[in-house]
Amino acid sequence: MPELPEAESIARALDHALAGRVITKVEVFFPRLRTPLAPLLSAGLPGRRILGCRRRARYAVADLDDGRALVLHFGMSGVARVEDARRPRRKHEHVVVTLDDGRALKFEDPRRFGAFEVQELGPDGWPVSLAGIGVEPLSDDFTGEMLFLASRGLRRPAKELLMDNSIVTGIGNIYAAETLFACGIAPQRPASSLTRRECAALVRAARRILRAAIRLGGTTVHDFRNVDGSEGKFVQRLKIYGKAKCPRCGSATAKVVLGGRTSWYCPACQH
Ligand SMILES: [Zn+2]
Hints:
By secondary structure, the chain is α+β, with helices and mostly antiparallel strands. It folds into two domains: 4-130, MutM-like, N-terminal (N-terminal domain of MutM-like DNA repair proteins); 144-265, Orthogonal Bundle (Helicase, Ruva Protein, domain 3). 22% of the residues lie in helices and 22% in strands. It has five helices and ten strands. The chain has helices at residues 4-18, 144-151, 158-162, 173-183, 196-215, and strands at 23-28, 50-56, 59-64, 68-73, 79-84, 93-99, 103-108, 115-120, 254-258, 261-265. The strands form three sheets. The protein has a four-stranded antiparallel beta sheet, with helices on one face. A hairpin with a 3-residue loop joins β6 (93-99) and β7. It binds zinc ion.
């Protein structure tokens, strides 16, 4: 599942490929992904110019010249490509948006947990469906003090705190594991036991790891591909996620399932 760095890489690539282009045709080839696709056909999209593309949480938001936006979520297996419109459609390409330069934005999603919608923007300048999600981890709003306050009274594990989208959005399973390892904090520690100092360290580590992952185009695990088909290179930088041995002390790593997701950690280094 694409996490924040992958979504950021995709949004930047889409911005480069789509900014200034005019939509000439919209086709859908399946009734619905996570949400129905038919509204795309009746939304009056042909003739609309795409101003650019930006990211919020794990969504790519392509702004249109009429104040609406295309909102893409990649679910488990979604892939967005911008390529020659004449290239034959792949089996699981459910949405094809043809552009005025002979290319097309194609959305492929074999498992169909993704979404491709057109939405109005809300008062905050973001699509209405994205209202109420937590702060962006790379924004100035994500601070140690903010995380510390959010963790007070929370018996849930520290890892779930980092992955709670209503608190901070876009730190998924891989990056939460890496962040906790960097800070020597066990994923199952109750969030309420985190100190101010630990919360500040978690914020610094999460930002550093996410920035590095964005620089390297994200982490390829399973089906993720960037918009040009290349794979993210951050996977080579992972220290604990999916590892059998701790790179710091050499101990065998342990796994624990929290909130339905497997978390690797080092029992010797993380407490
Ligand atoms: Zn260790």
